[in-house]
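User: For a teaching handout, I'd like to show students what a predicted protein-ligand complex looks like in token form. I'll give you the sequence and the SMILES for zinc ion. Please answer with just the structure.
Assistant: Understood, here is the input followed by the structure.
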Amino acid sequence: MTETDDTVRMEELTWQAFEDRIDDGPVFVPIGSTEQHGPHLPLSVDTVIAIEIAERTAHEAGGMVAPPLHYGYTSQPGSGGGPEFVATTSVHGDTLRRQVGNIVADLARDGVREFVIVNGHFENEYAIREAIDRHLENGLDDRFVIASWWDLLSASTRGPIFENVPGGFPGWEAEHAGVVETSLMLYLRPDLVDEDAIVDDGSSRNPPYVLKPAPEDTIPDSGVFYKATHATAETGERVLMEVVEVLANAIEDEWGT
Ligand SMILES: [Zn+2]
């Protein structure tokens, strides 16, 4: 028994240990971003959450977690503030699509047949799907679960979280650096949350269409798109537990592993 027997992190394994475990379960690929998340959260929020969900699910359902992608598809004004914020550093959709495609192709060549892509950044979703679509065009029998974590949260868990928030649930694109992301970080990495800097904010208007360049009044100055003061570590724990359970059950239900 060595220390690495317990790890699910691919990067901590030797190539032989990786090879020994290829048939033991899926390989998880966490994909995040480097994006502003208001004055109270670090740039790594989307990546941290994706990694934690992937690792906890792998401990429950089996499998290994590939090294995460720290850069995501270009941040958009209505769901993260866009590139106007200093420090937000993104890659184009085509770059992300190729990165995901290259990584999956290499792992598939090694013999990995089941992949769980855990997405933490709203804008990544369709670049990831396109990468997988193109991979499968080669007629392979590889199988994929692609999950953006917020989609795994049930209405019955989401309801009470926003019950006492004036305005209720605003939609996930507008929840950027808001109640749930702040709650998850308070639970997972309180050392990275500046609690004194937590604010409620939002843009003064949300037109039902996209304007480019984005007018200033459609982006909140703070970078917080919703009411982050309603965040708690307890909410973060509840969200995380459900998301991990739903994802572990999905792997079992879809693939019977
Ligand atoms: Zn985020």
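For the handout, you might add this sentence: The helical segments are 15-21, 45-61, 77-80, 93-110, 125-136, 155-163, 179-188, 233-255.
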